[in-house]
Design brief:
This protein is an alpha/beta fold. The chain is 35% helix and 17% strand. It contains ten helices and twelve strands.
Length: 287
């Protein structure tokens, strides 16, 4: 039995850049050093932005970097029935509600004056003000093609758990990080678990996919760390194991800004065209 299984899970919505190279190489190196497995997952759940050409570029860039994966890549677009099954599970337990709010509605409600308080932000941006929470009879049939949010207050009451913890693998010292359940209502709010234009969400799909692939160690950037306690909550609700996490440093440009897919100047394909080697890329990202 393999005790160490990690993964790289890019979205085919643009070219991979140096930040992706660092994360993929870091996870791949960790798996190989531990005698474990490295898996690839294509996070193409958002069909409105995903493109086949970018998926093919992912395979090509990773192979050029010397990265190999030990199983056929998982594609989220093949797993929609699993996402729907999980959503039905949560709906039948009264934990979800449909939401018709647009982003501008949320921004307007969150920006309304409340004793001079500033709008609160969480891992998903503005914390949802609860506009649609009480509008729907949750004993009705599962709503199709509607955005679905997790009722955080009711869910935490049903979970009956005082805190949500995970192990963070660090080069300095492994540690257990916990978030009190009482903080999640105010600091996270009613997160979206399925969108109007495509089934599922990042939070839902990532915990289901990690479990399906048997991931034991999730290696990803520090920008995702604030959402990890959401993932632990969903793992608890759905009876899934909680992996060990390692949130690595981010690759930034000369101004300190985190790289984005629109930054084509730092795309792996651009460096390849300029004659750089995989060893050059490793040096550029500090590996």
């Amino acid at each position: 039995m393999t005790d160490f299984i990690t993964r790289f899970a890019p979205s085919p919505t643009g070219p991979l850049h140096l930040g992706h190279a660092y994360s993929a190489l870091f996870a791949h190196d960790m798996a190989r050093a531990a005698g474990g497995k490295f898996l690839l997952r294509i996070e193409d759940i958002d069909s409105t932005r995903s493109r086949p050409k970018w998926e093919e570029q992912i395979y090509d860039d990773l192979a050029w970097l010397g990265i190999s994966w030990d199983e056929a890549p998982m594609r989220q677009s093949d797993r929609l029935p699993e996402y729907k099954l999980a959503l039905h599970n949560l709906w039948n337990r009264g934990m979800l509600f449909p939401c018709t709010c647009r982003r501008r509605d949320i921004a307007a409600a969150a920006g309304a004056p409340q004793e001079g308080a500033e709008p609160a932000f969480g891992p998903d941006g503005l914390i949802y003000p609860g506009t649609c929470r009480e509008k729907t009879d949750r004993r009705s049939n599962f709503p199709e093609h509607e955005a679905l949010r997790l009722d955080m207050q009711d869910t935490l009451s049903a979970a009956n758990q005082s805190e949500f913890c995970y192990s963070e693998l660090s080069s300095e010292q492994d540690k257990t990080l916990c978030t009190p359940a009482s903080d999640m209502v105010d600091d996270v709010g009613d997160i979206v678990l399925s969108r109007r234009d495509f089934l599922g969400s990042y939070h839902l799909s990532v915990v289901l996919d990690d479990a399906a692939q048997g991931i034991t160690h999730v290696v990803r950037g520090k920008d995702i760390q604030p959402a990890t306690h959401i993932h632990v909550l969903l793992q608890t609700l759905l009876g899934l194991p909680t992996p060990t996490y390692h949130h690595h440093r981010l690759i930034r440009d000369e101004t300190g800004k985190r790289l984005a897919k629109r930054d084509d100047a730092r795309a792996i394909a651009t460096y390849r065209a300029e004659g750089k080697t995989p060893e050059d890329i490793r040096r550029m990202v500090g590996l």
